[in-house]
Design brief:
With 128 residues, this protein is of the alpha/beta class. Helices cover 47% and strands 19% of the residues. It has a 5-stranded parallel sheet, with helices on both faces. Helix 4 links the parallel strand 4 and strand 5. Helix 2 runs parallel beside helix 3. It is globular, with a radius of gyration of 13 Å.
């Protein structure tokens, strides 16, 4: 389903990171994992990804700051999916304001994550 996709996972919680990596690798995606927004920005600066899964609350640089930097400074249009335990309306608004494409609430079902990734990629193709 996700075969051949290059996906950046920015997640500081090691258990969550292992779970997401397992889900994506089981679907034959190429996964690069980082533990903070600063590392995510560096990865995006040096490599092209099909999708970024971005935790919101991380040390050094949170997901909001990292996405804003990716959009405004690096001028990258790669789809960014926020991963958050919070699904409050104000958090979702803030995600959209900094340039994220959509959000998924943790915990999530593996199939829901994979379907959302494919939907975001389809939406990206129709807008470019």
């Amino acid at each position: 389903m996700l075969t051949g996709l290059s996906i950046l996972v920015a997640e500081d919680n090691s258990l969550n990171q292992r779970i997401v990596n397992f889900i994506l690798q089981k679907q034959h995606a190429e996964v690069v994992a980082v533990v903070n927004g600063s590392d995510a920005v560096e990865q995006v600066r040096n490599k092209d990804f099909d999708v970024i899964l971005m935790d919101l609350q991380m040390p050094e640089m949170d997901g909001y700051e990292a996405t804003s930097y990716i959009r405004q400074t690096l001028k990258k249009t790669v789809p960014v999916i926020a991963m958050s335990a919070s699904n409050f309306e104000e958090d979702i608004k803030k995600c959209m304001q900094v340039g994220m494409n959509t959000c998924i609430s943790k915990p999530f079902e593996p199939a829901d994550l994979c379907e959302l990734i494919l939907k975001v990629l389809r939406d990206q193709k129709t807008t470019t």
